[in-house]
Amino acid sequence: MFFADISTWEEFASALPRNARDTERLMAAVCYRFEVENADTTDIGILANDYFRRARWPRPTNLSATANHCASKGWLSEAGQADGRKLWRITRKGYDSIKPR
C-alpha cells in the first residue's frame, strides 16, 4: 500500500502540508494506525494525546466533534466503546479520501 516506505508516524505526519485541516490530520492518524499498526479501531483520546502530540500538531478544540464530522462524511464509522469512550473504524471511503494525500 502507500505506507510501504514509511517507517514512523512522525515521518508520515511530516509529509502532510502544514496547512492541513483537522479532518485531514485525524484521518491520516486513523489511517496510519489501520495500515501500519494493524489497529482496526481507535479511540480519539489516543490520537489526541499521542499522535497529534508526536506530530507537533495543534490539538483541535473538540476532536470528538471532528471525528463526528468525519463520520457524517462517511469516512469513519462507530465501532463500539471501550472504557466509556467511542471507538472508530476507518471506512473504505475514508481510506480512499486520505490515500492521495
Describe this structure in words.
There is one protein chain. With 101 residues, the protein is an alpha+beta fold. It is built from 5 helices and 3 strands; from the N terminus they run H-H-E-H-H-E-E-H. It has helices spanning 9-15, 22-35, 44-55, 63-72, 92-98, and strands spanning 42-43, 76-82, 85-90. It is globular and about 30 Å long.
Number of strands: 3
Question: What oligomerization state is this entry in?
Answer: single chain
Task: Compute the average pLDDT.
Answer: 88
Q: Roughly how many Å apart are the termini? A: 13 Å
- Rg, Cα atoms, Å: 12 Å
- Principal-axis shape: globular
Largest sheet entry = 3 strands, antiparallel
* Uncertain stretches: none
Main sheet strand line-up: 1-3-2
Helical content class: 40-55%
Instruction: Give me the number of helical elements.
Output: 5
* Strand portion: 5-15%
User: Helix/strand/pairing class, anyone?
Assistant: alpha+beta
Run of helices and strands: HHEHHEEH
Which labels suit this protein?
single chain, 101 residues, alpha+beta, 5 helices, 15% strand
List the helices and strands and how they pair.
Blueprint: H1 9-15, H2 22-35, E1 42-43, H3 44-55, H4 63-72, E2 76-82, E3 85-90, H5 92-98
Antiparallel strand pairs: 1-3, 2-3
